């Protein structure tokens, strides 16, 4: 039978609106006939000029990844792409996808992931489009995609096309389009070699430095095995949970103190290795721990920035830093001392793209365990781990010493995020509306006077695009700050995020638990939002 292009009539699905990072829904939603196809066609309909061009496709390997890749391959061919690069077994970590798009000058890419959300038949699935620069599509494009989903009447696919064998590296033809199955690790690992002092890290391991990397049964496993145990010579067993599973072994592939508890317990115990790290479902997040110490992601960004000169790929080329609004201002203090630009953007990596492209930011990060640089256009979990290893090797210090030195030089910004997951969505919206409308400016809350109260709005300094409603900020006269926003990545009810921050210049006060140091701010926001009255409990699900 000959392979032909087929136009399949369809009708729109409501709610195919990309959130903080693409479209994320329950697997069951994605498995409805036409659901994925509609979204993919809407993506293609929103793009111009891709005929004959290259598309990159890959995902985090979660349940439904393989079927989705086959669907997208057929649709890409039917819509006129000339070539698709797809990771073996349909795998590509999010930063590796960004790397591949850039390395092969692709038109763009489709990444299949719901990141840190649970997987499996009852779990979540997700899809997003990345542009030719390698980063997540900006809002201009995601808005166009959403608009296209609302009026879709047909999608294009192939009839009588065979399944592509994704298990073997090589090239095949699919309805006149080339499908190239690539090693998902090769381009990424080669890029890492250009950035870090690999020999210094190798020496570290040779001299007995110990590490545990928890890949959480997610996509980073093959990357961590190849780079840490392969190229850097870390002993076998350094990487744990290193085989990607469709359901991540039943867990949340979310590298934080709650969902990566085994690693956290190991690092706090008597038999802790020198260094611990974990990554999330799609490999763009990182958690960093030293023996007996957790590194808050906001501090991690600040430490990486302060020590970037020790990393060959960044020596002499730091121009600026960028952080998402709720991320602590620890990195701002580094930028101020070094005379770098410092940008504050809304939550989500897509807002860093223009700054990175324009050379206005070299490193960027988010409080949500996301750190990265201009080497790709996504946050990058393993990159952050290698950056820490490089700095540890160069400074010949422990994680604890590096942190203490940093706080000694710059002061300590106590910081915590409290997540309240699975809330009633209408009640959570009501909380936000009440908080937005409350006349807080000039009031005294918990002994602090409110100096600023707004809903964060952002104008991109490069392309002038604007974004409103990005989170409520309450700043006090003493510089302390509370931020409140609703998650844009969840698929069940609402998740309320409370971000708490206070600067402490006095080194004598640095060695205390963040929850203790922030206790008054935590009480202030719980009272102000009447959390217990509204939801029956004021205890967070996850504390970072
Ligand atoms: C969360 C984080 C945000 C991050 C986003 C995507 O978004 O807070 O900082 O960029 O996830 O990360 P939200 O809207 O739920 O707060 V990932 O690793 O899920 O791609
Ligand atoms: Co992720």
From TrEMBL:
GO biological process: carbohydrate metabolic process
UniProt keywords, alphabetically: Isomerase, Magnesium, Metal-binding, Phosphoprotein
GO terms under cellular component: cytosol
EC number: 5.4.2.2
Pfam family, any one: PGM_PMM_III
Cofactor: Mg(2+)
InterPro entries registered for this protein in UniProt: A-D-PHexomutase_a/b/a-I, A-D-PHexomutase_a/b/a-I/II/III, A-D-PHexomutase_a/b/a-II, A-D-PHexomutase_a/b/a-III, A-D-PHexomutase_C_sf, A-D-PHexomutase_CS, Alpha-D-phosphohexomutase_SF, PGM
Catalysed reactions, as listed in the record: alpha-D-glucose 1-phosphate = alpha-D-glucose 6-phosphate
GO molecular-function terms, A-Z: magnesium ion binding; phosphoglucomutase activity
Residue ranges of every copy of the Alpha-D-phosphohexomutase alpha/beta/alpha domain listed in the record: 16-153, 187-289, 298-410
Sequence similarity: Belongs to the phosphohexose mutase family.
Protein name, per record: phosphoglucomutase (alpha-D-glucose-1,6-bisphosphate-dependent)
Natural source organism: Rhodospirillum rubrum (strain ATCC 11170 / ATH 1.1.1 / DSM 467 / LMG 4362 / NCIMB 8255 / S1)
């Amino acid at each position: 039978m000959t392979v032909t292009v087929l136009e399949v009539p369809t009708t729109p699905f409501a709610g195919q609106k990309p959130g903080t990072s693409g479209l994320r829904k329950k697997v069951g939603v994605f498995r409805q006939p036409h659901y994925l196809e509609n979204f993919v066609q809407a993506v293609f309909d929103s793009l111009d000029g891709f005929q004959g061009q290259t598309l990159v496709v890959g995902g985090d390997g979660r349940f439904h990844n393989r079927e989705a890749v086959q669907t997208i391959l057929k649709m890409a061919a039917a819509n006129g792409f000339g070539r698709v690069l797809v990771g073996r077994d349909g795998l590509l970590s999010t930063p590796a996808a960004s790397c591949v798009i850039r390395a092969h000058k692709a038109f763009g890419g489709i990444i299949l992931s719901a990141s840190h959300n649970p997987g499996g038949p009852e779990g979540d699935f997700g899809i997003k489009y990345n542009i030719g620069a390698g980063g997540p599509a900006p809002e201009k494009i995601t808005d166009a995609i959403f608009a296209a989903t609302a009026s879709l009447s047909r999608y294009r696919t192939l009839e009588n096309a065979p399944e592509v064998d994704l298990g073997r590296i090589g090239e095949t033809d699919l309805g006149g389009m080339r499908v190239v199955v690539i090693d998902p690790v090769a381009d990424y690992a080669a890029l890492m070699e250009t950035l870090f002092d690999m020999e210094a890290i190798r020496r570290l391991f040779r001299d007995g430095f110990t590490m545990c990397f928890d890949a959480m049964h997610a996509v980073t496993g093959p990357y961590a095995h190849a780079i840490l145990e392969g190229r850097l010579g870390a002993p076998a067993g350094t990487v744990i949970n290193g085989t990607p599973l469709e359901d991540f072994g039943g867990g949340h592939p979310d590298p934080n103190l709650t969902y990566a508890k085994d690693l956290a317990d190991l690092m706090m115990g008597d038999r802790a290795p020198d260094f611990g790290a974990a990554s999330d479902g799609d490999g763009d997040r990182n958690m960093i721990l030293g023996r007996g110490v957790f590194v808050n992601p906001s501090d991690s960004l600040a430490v990486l920035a302060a020590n970037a000169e020790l990393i060959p790929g960044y020596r002499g080329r730091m121009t600026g830093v960028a952080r998402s609004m709720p991320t602590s201002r620890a990195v701002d203090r580094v930028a101020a001392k070094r005379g770098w630009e410092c940008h504050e953007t809304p939550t989500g990596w897509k807002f860093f793209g223009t700054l990175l492209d324009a050379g206005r930011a070299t490193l960027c990060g988010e409080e949500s365990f996301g750190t990265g640089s201009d080497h790709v256009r996504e946050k990058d979990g393993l990159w952050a781990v290698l950056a820490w290893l490089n700095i540890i090797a160069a400074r010949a210090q422990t994680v604890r010493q590096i942190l203490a030195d940093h706080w000694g030089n710059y002061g300590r910004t106590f910081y915590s995020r409290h997540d309240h997951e699975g809330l009633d969505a209408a009640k959570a919206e009501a909380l936000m509306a009440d908080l937005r409308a409350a006349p807080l400016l000039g009031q005294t809350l918990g002994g602090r006077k409110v100096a600023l109260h707004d809903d964060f709005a952002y104008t991109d300094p490069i392309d002038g695009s604007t974004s409103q409603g990005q989170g409520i900020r309450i700043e006090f006269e003493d510089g302390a700050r509370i931020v409140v926003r609703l998650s844009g990545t969840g698929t069940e009810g609402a998740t309320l995020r409370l971000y708490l921050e206070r600067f402490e210049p006095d080194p004598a006060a640095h060695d205390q638990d963040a929850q203790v140091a922030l206790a008054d701010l935590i009480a202030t926001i719980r009272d102000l939002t009447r959390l217990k009255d509204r939801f029956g409990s004021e205890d967070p699900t996850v504390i970072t």
